[in-house]
Amino acid sequence: AGYLHAHKLFVSSQDDLLTFKKSRSPFQRVSQALLIVVSAAGVVFCYWNSLSVTPQAQAYLDRHHFYEAGKTYIPNLMLILLLSIILFALIAKAILPWVIQLWTWLLPRKSSATVNDAFWSTVFDKEYLTSLISPLTAGSFMLTGITCIAGEISNGGPNAAAAANTRESVIGFVGVPLSIILANVLTITILTSAQKRAGIRQLSRLGFTRRNLVVEKVQEALIYATTFFICAVLGSLPFNLLTDHIVLRTHRTIALSG
After folding, report:
1. Closest by Cα among 153, 174, 186, 194 to 60
2. Torsion sign (Cα): 105, 106, 108, 114
């Protein structure tokens, strides 16, 4: 009975913390659904279009301008980066709890109260989960994508300046967006600090000691970090494979002809 009463207090306190959230209007839901469809269709089309040799690339290949042929795919790759970031931001709130549930079966959730509480804390607070993981994943995907484009496709050929300015290009394209993303994450962390302190008080009511609270927060950070790592790898892997495919279809001709 004491546990049930404490759990009831915990749930009611969480409800109080979430009273500031407002449900979206039907127009917002329809608009988000349309954006998801358009973004997903754009990503699929750009990937499909980049898998084949385009007429523009073939024209450069016929004149033996192999590096220039590879550079014709840069607009498609940039569109993939942009649309993928938009798509993930739109669906992150729906898929991130499922991602956590899929991999946390490896953790001792049933035998450890701290692990179990950390799991439910991350899954329950979808707003904070999305606000934290989504911008970090977007920044990681942007940094990886621009690095692949600058290092493997635009780095070479008759434009010697492109090879010399690869580092400057990466900093110029990625530096400002990454700064905005990090500032956003810092702001979110500060704004939710009051809720986190309230959560700690609730755990104390349930009988958690200071050591339990520290372990619980470490486990929570581990879940966030691992989820970010999984999302970053799964998002970047297809793009890296596509970049390697483009390089093989264009730059490889140099090695064969030599």
Report:
1. 153
2. negative
DSSP summary character for residue 25: P
Q: Tell me the Cα Rg of the chain.
A: 23
Can you list the alpha helix ranges (DSSP code H) found in the chain? 2-17, 26-51, 55-62, 66-71, 74-103, 113-124, 126-148, 160-164, 166-191, 193-205, 210-250, 252-257
Q: 167: which 2 tokens? A: 């580092």
Residue 124: C-alpha distances to residues 16, 99, 147, 238 (Å): 14, 13, 35, 30
pLDDT at residue 253 in the model: 45
Query: In the numeric block, which tokens belong to residue 91?
Result: 């669906």
Termini Cα distance of the chain: 80
The pTM for the full model equals 0.72
Phi-psi map region of 64: left, alpha, beta (phi>0 left; psi -120 to 50 alpha): left
Lookup result for tokens 């991130």: 96
Residue 93 DSSP SS3: helix
Look at residue 63 and give its three-state secondary structure: coil
Angle (CA) 202 204 12, round 5°: 20
pLDDT tens digit sequence for 133-184: 888 888 888 888 888 887 777 665 554 454 445 445 555 555 555 565 556 5
Q: Is the distance from CB of 250 to CB of 63 less than 8 angstroms?
A: no
The token duo for 156 is 């070479």
How far apart (Å, rounded) are the C-alpha atoms in residues 196 and 251? 52
To which residue do tokens 């994508």 refer?
Answer: 145
Q: Which two tokens stand for residue 210?
A: 């200071």
Amino acid code (one letter) for 242: L
